[in-house]
Amino acid sequence: MRAKIIGTGSCLPDKIVTNDALSSFVDTSDEWIWSRTGIRERRLVSSESETTVSMAVSAAKAALEDSGLLPQDLDLILVSTVSSDFITPSTACLVQRELGTCNAAAFDLNAACSGFLFALNTADAYFQAGIFRTALLIGVETLSKIVDWHDRSTCVLFGDGAGAAVVKAAPDGMIAGLQGSDGSGGDILSCRGRACGSPFFHADASPGCLHMDGRKVFQFAVKKVPECIQSLLQAAGVDAGDVSYYLLHQANSRIISSIAQKLKLPLEKFPMNVESRGNTSAASIPILLDEVHRAGMLSEGDLLLFSGFGAGLTWGAALLRW
Ligand code: COA
Fold it and tell me: Which CATH superfamily is domain 176-190+206-321 in?
């Protein structure tokens, strides 16, 4: 039995922040951001009631409703995030509490922007092993609380939001998945946590902000993602042209165009929402999936390929039948 997606949902904060709005407090411009990233605006949390958990719960409820399952039907709740509200309990346990069910095992995983793919592949492995039969997968980020709002090279890129998918064990669905990591490249995209508060040694206590070497991340993405997609298609024996849509991590439209070019595929096969969402890290693929699904673009039997890359370094891909 493999993981089949039976429902999707998403949640975005109400506040729309345009590139022009950013240029009122950092030295940047709409022209610079648009020409290098394809981003025009992003959604950012703007009240105490909009949190990582609240967005995850809204996306989860929409996905459950779409799937026809009830919270008590879930065996597993898996949340991928690098911006949880609490160190503990996990976001997954907090979502579980809000959904009012205690039947599911719930935990978070951190694979940054590849996180949703790691969650999907993990649920699929549980299903193949016969351990669980249903799962709620959520990618959620409130990156606005970890970016440095004085650093123009990073703060213009990111957005907040949540995306969710309900999956169940089925004879069809996932065809193949892969995930990988290279910790030696971790320094090119990182965010330090809190320092040790022990009374036994002194350490700088200031929490860190997101730090990135943009060029190196760009080079990593345009090399790794096509490799990842090609090896997945080869392993599955599927022709690249037979895939209806490639739903890629939405970091930058130039990265996506370069990947399409390397794969010699038309850009129409690569739906994008980075223009209005920015890079929402672990939430980007499930938000895009939900938008594509709700726009009526998917038909039963379509082949979909998800792929992404992110901090860690991490990368992943999944090929499945809708
Ligand atoms: N507005 C205006 N100027 C900016 C700017 C901004 N927001 N950010 C950087 N600049 C300036 C730099 O200071 C630099 O100026 P200098 O030449 O005077 O030193 C110049 O623009 C070029 O900077 P550089 O970093 O070389 O730009 P780039 O063409 O590589 O584009 C990124 C930067 C971040 C858009 C690009 O590298 C990228 O998209 N990388 C991938 C990032 C990513 O996807 N991260 C998430 C991964 S999950």
Answer: Thiolase/Chalcone synthase (3.40.47.10)
